[in-house]
Amino acid sequence: MLQIDFRRVDNIAVFDLEGSIDIDSANLIEAIGWCIGNGMKDILCNLESINLVDYAGLSVLAIAHKDVVNHQGRLKFVNVPSHIRKLLCLMGLDVVFEVYEDEERALKSFQEDREISEIQKKQLRRRFKRLPLDINIEFKSRVKDELFSKGKVLNISAVGLLVFADKIYPLNEILEVRLSLLPKPGLLDIEARVVWLIEKEIQPQIYPGMGLEFYNLDTAIQKKIVEFVDRNLPLSCA
Description:
Helix content: 25-40%
CATH topology of the largest domain: Transcription Regulator spoIIAA
Number of strands: 11
CATH superfamily of the largest domain: STAS domain
CATH architecture of the largest domain: 2-Layer Sandwich
Order of helices and strands: EEHEHEHEHEEEEEEH
Radius of gyration: 22 Å
Strand content: 35-45%
Shape: elongated
Strand order of the largest sheet: 6-7-8-11-10-9
Number of domains: 2
C-alpha cells in the first residue's frame, strides 16, 4: 500500500510518498479529499521515494488532480524520478501536471499563483459594469448555526456586490446569500466570500458594509446577473 507522510508548510499540504502508486493507492485520493475538506487546497506530492507508477496509478493521479482543480485548488509534483517523467510524457500528462525539480521552487510557485490570481480577479472586476441598487439582502455564515441577517445591496456586478449592513463578517468568510432580482432572474440562493470591509474613516456614508465576491457561482446564474445589470443600467453608464 502506498505510504503517505503528511506535513504542512504554511497552508500547503505536502505529501511525502513512498512505494508504488497503483490500483491500491486510493488512500492518496482520500488524503487529498481530507485536505480539501480542511481548507488546504494547495497540495504538493513528493515522489522522490516512489519506485513505480502503473497505468492504474496514473488514473489515481488524474482523479486526484481533477478533485483538487474542481475545488479551485492546485496539485503539483516534485522530485519525480526520470522513469516516471517519461511515463507522464508518454501519456500526455506532462502538460497537465506541474512538475518541479526542488521543493523550495515548488512551494514558491504556489505563492506566485496566488499573486497572479489576485491580479486577474482585480482586472476581471474592472471589466464588469456595476449597477447601483437599493434592494434587501439576507446572509449568514455558511459554517455557523445562525439565523439570517439583513442588509441592503448598494451595487451589483457579475462578480460580486457591495452590502450595507449592521452585521459584518471577517475577510474570507463564506456566506450564504439570498436576494431577489426582479422580474428575473428572481430569488437567488447563492454563496459569496467577504473580500473587502468598509473603513469608517474613508467611506463613512456606507459604513458599516462589506464587499462580497460570488463564490462557486454557476455560470448560468452569472449570465442572468449580467443580463439583469445590462437591462437596468442607465444609458449614460452603459
